Amino acid sequence: MSSHRDTDLRSLALSQAVADKIDNDPSLLAGVRDWAEGQEANAYREWQQILKGSWPQIREVLLEESDEGQRLRQSSPFVGILSPQERWKFFPVTS
After folding, report:
1. Do 85 and 4 touch, CB atoms closer than 8 A?
2. Which of 7, 10, 11, 58 is the most buried (most CB within 10 A)?
């Protein structure tokens, strides 16, 4: 069983992979913005405001290594940026 710290580190690593992918293809950010705007859950309202900023500002929030950054990553709107195969690289194989 993984600890909260392991989960937080994996979330940060996944977010870094997302940021790298958007760095290479900034057009992906439009899909994130569209998806987030369609969400009504309170968890996404903060992101809706954050996503109005520039990519460097958004990237900084996404990768922030703080309690606030961890909290925001728990409701990340960056779903679909990484393929299942890309995501699975961050989960250890257990037997």
Report:
1. no
2. 58
